[in-house]
Every structure is written in structure tokens, then in C-alpha cells.
Amino acid sequence: MILEEQISNKQIMENLRHCPSFDRCNKNICPLDLEMELRHGGAICKWMREAEERFAFNTMITFGGKTMPDELLIYVPKENIKYLNSPSKNRANELLNEDVYLPKIAPDECKSGVE
């Protein structure tokens, strides 16, 4: 039996810090988290929210649903892509289908997105 590679807190934090919102973010569910499947409940990252329209101050405002930039998307572990919002998930799949090398997305046999 092969033991699964252990992910250190340092690796998790290094990957999370790629997000420009990291220092001011209070969301506990993040697609950059190398152990996201261990997190439960609470607020989710804006890149995981589908578009939602709300009427406020006589104006229709759209929240969420934006596409994660490629320079951030490359740090999302493959196993977390399915949790992204539709536009981000579609972009990640386009990059994978076009055989564009995503250097920080983990190979299928690895758990970590950090090399």
C-alpha cells in the first residue's frame, strides 16, 4: 500500500497566497486550498459563486459568476476544478483540453498543486 503524500501547512499557505485577495479574504472555502475537501460550511470564494442578480437602489447588480484569471487558475488543484463557478470551470477545462500546460495544477496521481 502506497501512503498518500502528506501536504504541509506551509504548502497550503504558499498556494493560498497566490490569490491577490488572500490578505483581506475571510472565506474559509477556497479552490486554491490543497485540502479543500476537509473544509466544511461557511463562506465560499467568489470564484466558486455562480452569477446572481439582485435589485438594489433601483439598479440590477450581478454578484459572482466571473471567470478566474488564468494566472490564478493555474494554482487550482485538478480535484478542485469541479467546485469552481461555471465560467472558471469552463476556462480550466478549455486549457486542459487544448493541452495548454498548467504548471501548478497537480497531475492526477498527485494530491498537491504545489511542486
Q: Tell how many strands the DSSP assignment holds.
A: 2
**Overall form:** globular
How many individual helices? 3
Q: What proportion strand?
A: 5-15%
Mean pLDDT figure = 83
The oligomerization state is single chain
The residue fraction in helices comes out at 10-25%
Element order, helices and strands? Answer: HEEHH
Radius of gyration, taken over Cα atoms and rounded to an integer in Å: 15 Å
Q: Order the strands across the largest sheet as they lie in space.
A: 1-2
* Residue runs with pLDDT of under 50 for 5 or more positions: 106-115
Distance between the termini: 23 Å
What's the story with the biggest beta sheet? Answer: 2 strands, antiparallel
Structural class label:
alpha+beta
Brief write-up:
With 115 residues, the chain is α+β, with helices and mostly antiparallel strands. The protein contains three helices and two strands, in the order αββαα. It has helices at 9-16, 70-73, 86-97, and strands at residues 52-56, 59-63.
Layout of strands and helices, then pairs:
Elements: H1 9-16, E1 52-56, E2 59-63, H2 70-73, H3 86-97
Antiparallel strand pairs: 1-2
